Amino acid sequence: MKLENILVIGGTGKTGRKIVHLLKESGHNVRVGSRSAQPSFDWHQPGNWSKALSGMDKVYITYQPDLAVPGALEAIEELVNQARKSSVKKLVLLSGKGEREAELCEQVVIHSGIDYTIVRASWFNQNFNENFLLDPVLDGVVALPQAEVKIPFVDTDDIAEVAVKAILDDKHNGQIYQLTGPELLTFKQAIATIANASNRAITFVPISIQEYSQGMRDANVPEDFIWLIEYLFTEVLGNPKNSEITNDIEQVLKRKPISFTEYAEKVAATGVWNSLKETV
Ligand SMILES: NC(=O)c1ccc[n+]([C@@H]2O[C@H](COP(=O)([O-])OP(=O)(O)OC[C@H]3O[C@@H](n4cnc5c(N)ncnc54)[C@H](OP(=O)(O)O)[C@@H]3O)[C@@H](O)[C@H]2O)c1
User: Fold this and answer.
1) Which of 31, 164, 168, 216 could pair with 221 in a Cys bridge, judged by C-beta atoms 3.0 to 4.6 Å apart?
2) Whose CA is nearest to atom 12 of ligand 1?
3) The pLDDT value given to residue 278
4) Residue 86 contacts residue 50 (beta carbons within 8 Å)
5) CA-to-CA distance for 177 and 36, rounded, in angstroms?
6) Dist. CA 196–CA 237, nearest whole Å
7) Short name of one Pfam family for this protein (predicted)?
């Protein structure tokens, strides 16, 4: 097996750190691309990207905070230009399933002239234990809009395994994979599964998007984060086409995707959902 030099942008994040682990396990030379890494990679400092790209054969790209936000398209265009100059041979882009703005960024990668794979993922399971849904779960009351929408939550373990195959094997070049979990669940069903796995009482409260946004404003959440959350709840969850299950994970990994129950039982065993919230 040829050992390669691989830059993993977002290499300490939800998918990136798992990809770094899997690639290192197979002996590849991995460089983490993040603000805390050396050399540092910051999406807001394009003048410094060449240091992180230097000597890399392949790059896994996760953009922060989301490919749908203003400025993402220009950043991806610039990254692709710099990757070309650095003679990078393959790009694997993590994209959001059902995000029209993200598809514009995908097009930049697709037309880069560099080999590529696009990995479009639906909502991560891990939003409930590593992201903005952890706090409400710990509070025991989860109030969310789009209560009736059925969501094909996907596990970041599966995304990472697919991405690693895409990075290492040329047979995935030119593919757009759409990754979903094996079932459609409402938020209420997801919360009930977490409550059951962690042996806790957690109440789900359906609210409107306006009420949710107002709650974030009252809690002084920054406006650009509120914009992104509104976008994800309206454009992505509000689009019925996104309530579908695909079999791309099974096609690539030759096994079934991880179910939400398996995810919830694994996370519950770590105790994270039974820990007390820190009070300031
Ligand atoms: N969450 C979902 O449900 C979901 C679904 C589909 C697609 N996605 C896509 O997945 C991607 C990752 O989203 P996520 O929320 O799961 O985050 P994440 O991967 O957990 O992101 C954190 C990573 O990004 C790095 N980072 C943060 N700000 C950065 C900056 N300005 N420049 C460079 N690196 C930075 C962090 O390291 P440092 O702090 O050291 O910089 C860390 O490595 C996004 O593009 C999102 O659209 C997410």
Assistant:
1) 216
2) 62
3) 54
4) yes
5) 30
6) 25
7) NAD_binding_10
Q: What is the CATH number of domain 5-123+155-179+244-254?
A: 3.40.50.720
57 alpha carbon – ligand 1 mean position (Å): 22
Q: Which pLDDT does position 275 carry in this prediction?
A: 82
pLDDT at 277: 64
Residue type, 3: L
Q: Which amino acid is at 263?
A: Y
Q: According to the model, what pLDDT value does residue 280 have?
A: 44
Secondary structure letter of residue 275 according to DSSP = S
Residue 241: what pLDDT? 87
Residues with CB under 6 A from ligand 1: 10-16, 34-36, 41-44, 62-64, 66-67, 94, 96, 121, 123-124, 127, 131
- DSSP letter for 199, please: T
Q: How far is the CA of 220 from the centre of ligand 1 (A)?
A: 21
Q: What is the pLDDT of residue 268?
A: 97
Amino acid, single-letter form, for residue 227:
W
209-218 and 223-231 helices, crossing angle to 10° = 160
Out of 20, 35, 263, give the residue to mutate to test ligand 1, the one with the largest number of ligand atoms within 8 Å of its CB: 35
Low-confidence ranges of the chain (pLDDT < 70): 277-280
Ligand 1 center to 76 CA (angstroms): 14
SS (H, E, C) 84-97: HHCCCCEEEEEEEC
**CB atoms < 10 A from the CB of 113, how many?**
8
- pLDDT above 70 covers a percentage of the chain that reads 98
